[in-house]
Specification:
Blueprint: H1 4-55, E1 73-76, E2 82-85, E3 89-92, E4 130-131, E5 137-145, E6 148-160, E7 166-174, H2 176-228, H3 243-292, H4 299-323, E8 331-334, H5 335-344, E9 353-356, E10 364-367, H6 369-386, E11 391-398, E12 401-408, H7 434-437, H8 442-452, E13 456-461, E14 467-474
Parallel strand pairs: 9-11
Antiparallel strand pairs: 1-2, 1-7, 3-5, 4-6, 5-6, 6-7, 8-10, 11-12, 12-14, 13-14
Helix pairs in contact: 1-2, 3-4, 4-8, 5-6, 6-8
Length: 481
């Protein structure tokens, strides 16, 4: 079953069916128990009425028994022998005995006198019996009266005559009312349950269809975008504030980010092709001239173009790895030592670099040594390119971060351009030659690496009037503290 609507309708129908069946069974059980208790109460009343007569020493053959169809009665002695029974009772089950004819060997029990006097000849008051106050025993059985057999609820009550004889009265009450009521409720449930389930299934189907209609619109538009490869299109956003509306907004945000990423990738490929074309063309020209006229071969120029091409290719490969989501390392590094090492290797710089690192302050971070060294190197290259007479590097800690600052005394960066310089292949000094200005990838690489190390790279104005680049990285806590 591939349709969400069908699965939702089926699931809702099954849940409702289970709930209704459980509730219906509970109602039937409670109804049956209540009606059975009522029948038992009626049977107990009838049994106690007969037991009261026995306690008053009414002879068993003169008992005033209730209507046998409403309340069939049996009276048994201590040995379980039948001593009295309803007149028209033909068969019975569920009581102390299934006999409907009293035993002939049992004489009618009478402890009283036949006259109406309450006193005997000696003036003494005759003894009287009593009815048991214990809860009666209840059983279910059947009784046949005038040829009709029905189910009954029987109650058994004990009575003691004045002579001390214990007799048990079994009286029944019909369960026809209980059976009829339970049958009516069960029939109504059997008819109403399928109708209710059909209604639930239909309503769930329609509501799910209505709720998922925007999803179908989103799916259709995404299919059209995939077919047309037009990332400028957007899926329709419903006016509701539910999960589907949030899904549509998130989808459009994803499409916007994807469109920007594709556009950036296209510009990157175009700019990279353009940047690679110049050194390759220059190198080819020099080699062709050298092949035709060996004495005119410019070896230093060819080496310079080769180095420039090698550096550009390395930058492009690093950017490709960063765009692919390459994770930085987890090495513990001392940024002060890293800066000293990077500056010490720059023997051919035009302007000497001044380094300021606190001798005893912890300056440790976590990351990739090669990539962090690349940031410091790119910032120093940028400062050397723009400085007039001084380049300074400082390392310090500030509010849980290690800050590496590179300053120069050059022309600085205009405030409106301070974010644009971190874009790829962007050079503000367009009048400069490419050999002096580079390809415009150094600062872009530096910021990308900083972000992947959970840090930031910003530019402000330095006290000397030039540019001041600040790299902030999360400081690694000293485990010894």
């Amino acid at each position: 079953m591939r349709s969400v609507r069908a699965r939702a309708a089926l699931g809702a129908t099954v849940v409702v069916a289970v709930a209704l069946i459980g509730a219906g069974l509970a109602v039937l059980l409670v109804l049956r128990a209540n009606l059975t208790d009522q029948a038992g109460l009626q049977a107990e009343v009838a049994a106690r009425e007969v037991a009261g007569q026995l306690a008053l020493d009414v002879p068993v053959d003169r008992l005033d028994l209730p209507d046998e169809e409403e309340h069939p009665v049996q009276v048994t002695d201590e040995d379980g022998r039948l001593v009295a029974v309803s007149k028209d009772l033909k068969a019975i089950t569920g009581t102390g005995t299934d006999r409907v004819t009293p035993h002939t060997s049992v004489a009618p029990t009478s402890t009283g006198t036949d006259d109406d006097s309450d006193d005997d000849a000696t003036g003494n008051i005759p003894a009287r019996g009593e009815v048991s106050t214990d809860d009666p025993d209840f059983t279910n059985g059947t009784a046949t009266v005038d040829g009709d057999t029905a189910d009954y609820r029987f109650a058994s009550v004990s009575a003691t005559t004045g002579a001390g004889v214990t007799l048990t009265v079994h009286a029944g009450a019909p369960l026809a009312t209980e059976q009829k009521a339970v049958g009516s409720v069960r029939g109504a449930m059997l008819i109403g349950l399928p109708v209710m389930l059909l209604i639930v299934a239909a309503v769930t189907w329609l509501m799910t269809r209505r709720a998922l209609r925007p999803v179908e619109g989103i799916r259709a538009e995404m299919a059209a975008i995939t077919a047309s490869e037009d990332l400028s299109r957007r899926v329709p956003e419903p006016g509701s504030r539910d999960e589907i509306a949030r899904l549509a907004r998130t989808t459009n945000e994803t499409l916007t980010a994807l469109e920007a990423s594709v556009d950036r990738q296209r510009r990157f490929v175009a700019d990279a092709s353009h940047e690679l074309r110049s050194p390759i063309a220059s190198l080819r020209t020099q080699l062709e001239v050298g092949a035709a006229h060996p004495d005119l071969l410019d070896v230093p120029g060819a080496v310079t173009d080769t180095v420039r091409l090698q550096v550009l290719a390395a930058d492009l490969l690093l950017l490709a790895r960063l765009d692919a989501g390459e994770r930085p390392g987890n090495t513990r590094l001392d940024m002060g030592a890293l800066v000293h090492e990077e500056v010490s290797q720059r023997t051919g710089d035009r302007i000497p670099v001044t380094v300021s690192v606190p001798p005893s302050e912890p300056l440790e971070v976590t990351g990739s040594r090669g990539q962090l060294a690349r940031i410091v190197g790119n910032l120093l290259d940028n400062a050397e390119r723009h400085a007039e007479s001084s380049v300074a590097v400082s390392v310090r800690t500030e509010r849980g971060s290690v800050v590496v600052a590179v300053s120069d005394d050059g022309a600085g960066v205009p405030e409106p351009e301070r974010e644009r310089i971190f874009e790829r292949f962007v050079r503000l000094d367009d009048a400069r030659s490419r050999d002096e200005g580079g390809a415009g990838l150094g600062l872009a690489i530096a910021r990308d690496v900083a972000r992947r190390h959970e840090g930031t790279l910003t530019v402000t104005r330095s006290p000397e009037g030039g540019a001041r680049f600040e790299l902030r990285l999360p400081a690694r806590p000293d485990p010894g503290r």
